């Protein structure tokens, strides 16, 4: 809301709110133009464009000149613009452990450090998986296989020859993964003095688009006696592989300029760069892109942010697909032996 307010001041409140209202009511009308081109209809104000490029890059996984206006409007309709920020106070691992407890308490089993090596396919349907366990391979028969490793990796495990060309083409052209460079900064003083439990969106920096003061949200995440700040950096293009060394260098310059206390009181404790061809990029699909949860192989489903419902992205998209697939499986299959 604060960012939208700044945009409204830059171009005129009524103009922006009116145009946005129309866009969110009929997002499909804007499918033929990028969000930047849509915005140029109303203003060429540099600050306005900078604000929205930061918003879109941070939340929708692409720059304003790379994503359709229709996709951006569908995001604001579906996700309400991310009004809240949730950070697990003890990290995401605790959430996974709690989920595992629910599974085991209901008679299921959870294996860790047991990577899947193959999805077993026979007669055009998935019949199980092969995993590594205790130094050997174990084949597990199942009525249904649900994959959360991304459509491309799923194809590799099942065998490319099991999929039709249309589906393979979609995995090459519709995913649009998002590269990112993340940096964790420890400091003996808060770098963002007004650091409330929220996301700071940075406009006009070289690479940094958003900053989260993690220790303001959960002090136990920081090194003892220190503050912890988490920054996202977006490359100029999300379409090609980024040069990791260049990106990290640009982010260091941003840190020095955006946070004057950094050089004297801060230190980088970790860089984490994810390229478009990494096993786990920041997102496997930007808003408005992606492929479906069903595959040409019967009983084989994809879940995750590569298969989002319209307007969804990131972990919200992943959760929505998991819920959707669980509903399908619950209706089509009955518990029992495969």
From TrEMBL:
Swiss-Prot/TrEMBL keywords: FAD, Flavoprotein, NAD, NADP, Signal
Protein name: Amine oxidase domain-containing protein
PANTHER family, sorted: AMINE OXIDASE DOMAIN-CONTAINING PROTEIN, BLR7054 PROTEIN
InterPro entries membership: Amino_oxidase (IPR002937), FAD/NAD-bd_sf (IPR036188), Retinol_saturase (IPR052206)
GO MF annotations in UniProt: oxidoreductase activity
Record-annotated Amine oxidase domain positions: 22-326
